[in-house]
Design brief:
With 431 residues, the protein is α/β, with parallel strands linked by helices. It has two domains: 3-56; 65-431, no CATH class. The chain contains 13 helices and 20 strands. It has helices spanning 19-29, 100-107, 117-120, 137-144, 166-183, 216-228, 245-252, 263-277, 303-306, 313-319, 349-357, 389-401, 419-430; strands spanning 3-11, 35-45, 48-56, 79-82, 112-115, 121-122, 125-126, 132-134, 149-152, 157-161, 187-192, 199-203, 209-213, 233-238, 240-241, 281-285, 323-326, 338-342, 361-364, 383-386. A six-stranded mixed sheet has the order 2-3-1-13-12-15. A six-stranded parallel sheet has the order 8-5-4-18-19-20. A four-stranded parallel sheet has the order 11-10-14-16, sandwiched between helices.
């Protein structure tokens, strides 16, 4: 069952982008035995949409799906989702845990903030606050597709390790025990795969990286063993090859054209494990070559990685109280007050889900990305373009106060006369 990412070309319709039609075209291309684990528009070329798609070919029957857990009825409040797709070269959140301050600031104006690993994972550090809800990537996409609801719960974590050198394994296990002794993280045990998983990356023709996993069956087997031991969440660490030392150095130097070289493969692995087991999963790369090399100063946004011996502590901290998928009670997309995305990343499930649910989509101009499709490609309905995250936080503060966003800006436009347009619309309907 090969697991890989690829770029496919789809026909772009005229006028504003309709993400629903994009998803329909993708679903039509997926064979009956294949599963699409991730998708997102990375660009436009010669009138065609370029879409990165993660596919599991000849997929087995998954062990688990959404599970219902006892939960209190939803209470009133302001909830916001912050999304920064991995591997797109985002100026904020495109490195390692560097969107953590944004998540913390949103907690000051929102009761709950939905985050995902790419937003708050900071190697030996964790960027989420007490009111953040950590959601794995696959479950987040299912949430935005209106397929599941989310319930936050405490987890017993199973640790799944790639078969690598003994010193690398020892470093990871020391990180696990450190998190147990300092934070009281509940870990049921660890499992080492029977052979190397074979995660790898390659640079695409469009400047970013796409991933491939040669032996996803090993992840499937290991995750099932951990689930049998009582694990309700899976923390994975694997080696990822195909990354040159120059790729890593450019990423650490914040080269504006360099995306996170391992992000695509990390997303493949975590999404596959969640899809196949129904359990939340997050992934950390095993440091090798220049990855994690802390001998030189790096861009502050990448410093968390080089200051840690492994990238494992953050995912254990996040998974300890991660959201689980539910088909019953829990948080639904219509419970959100806003979805916040980078300006150039509106071509995926978060934007589609927000628009379908009538939830404001905040596109942050300052957070530009190396790949993706911009907010100007969408029609204006439901899209609020803000200059930076400070403005986005101000928008949420207005929601909380019951103040219309446009009334805090100047000049303040006079109220609009819609009687003529309404009469015309009614006449058209009657005819």
């Amino acid at each position: 069952m090969p697991l890989f990412s690829e770029i496919v070309r789809l026909q772009a319709q005229r006028g504003p982008l309709d993400l629903s039609s994009v998803l329909d075209q993708l679903n039509a291309r997926i064979a009956g035995s294949d599963v699409m684990l991730r998708w997102g528009i990375v660009g436009v070329e010669n009138g065609e949409l370029l879409v990165e798609v993660a596919v599991l070919r000849d997929a087995p029957v998954p062990d688990g799906g959404p599970a219902s857990y006892a939960a209190l009825p939803n209470v009133p409040g302001v909830r916001v989702a912050i999304v920064v797709p991995t591997g797109v070269g985002a100026a904020i959140g495109g490195f390692i845990g560097d969107a953590g301050p944004v998540a913390h600031a949103f907690e000051a104006v929102a009761d709950q903030v939905l985050v995902h690993p790419n937003v708050v994972n900071g190697a030996g550090m964790y960027g989420g606050g007490p009111n953040s809800i950590y959601v794995d990537g696959y479950s987040l996409d299912q949430f935005f597709a209106h397929s599941v609801r989310l319930l936050q719960r405490r987890h017993k974590i199973g640790v799944l390790l790639d078969r690598v050198r003994e010193d690398q394994t020892v470093a990871l296990l020391n990180a696990v025990d450190a998190m147990r002794s300092v934070f009281g993280i509940d870990v049921c045990g660890y499992c080492i795969t029977d052979d190397a998983v074979g995660g790898e990356v390659a640079r695409s023709d469009y400047g970013h990286f796409v991933g491939r996993v040669r032996r996803p069956d090993l992840l499937f087997d290991g995750a099932r063993r951990l689930a049998a031991e009582g694990a309700t969440a899976i923390a994975v660490a694997t080696l990822i090859t195909g990354v040159s030392d120059d790729d890593v150095r450019r990423h650490y130097a914040a080269d504006s054209e360099q995306c996170n070289p391992v992000g695509s493969t990390e997303a493949l692995i975590s999404r596959f494990v969640t899809w196949s087991t129904g359990l939340p999963c997050a992934h950390a790369p095993i440091f090798a070559g220049a990855l994690g090399d802390g001998r030189n100063r790096v861009d502050p946004r990448a410093a968390a990685e080089v200051s840690s011996q492994t990238g494992f502590p953050c995912i254990l901290r996040g998974l300890a109280k991660a959201a689980s998928r539910s088909d019953g009670l829990g948080l639904g997309i219509s419970d959100l007050a806003a979805v916040v995305v980078p300006y150039d990343c509106v071509g995926g499930p978060p934007a589609l889900g927000a628009r379908m649910a009538g939830v404001p989509l905040l596109a942050v101009k300052q957070n530009r990305s190396a790949v993706g499709i911009s907010a100007r490609s969408l029609d204006a309905r439901g899209v609020v373009v803000v200059e930076n995250y400070a403005e986005a936080i101000g928008f949420v503060a207005c929601l909380r106060a019951g103040v219309a966003w446009e009334t805090v800006a100047r000049p303040l436009e006079a109220v609009r006369d819609v009687s003529a347009s309404t009469t015309k619309a009614l006449a058209s309907t009657d005819g």
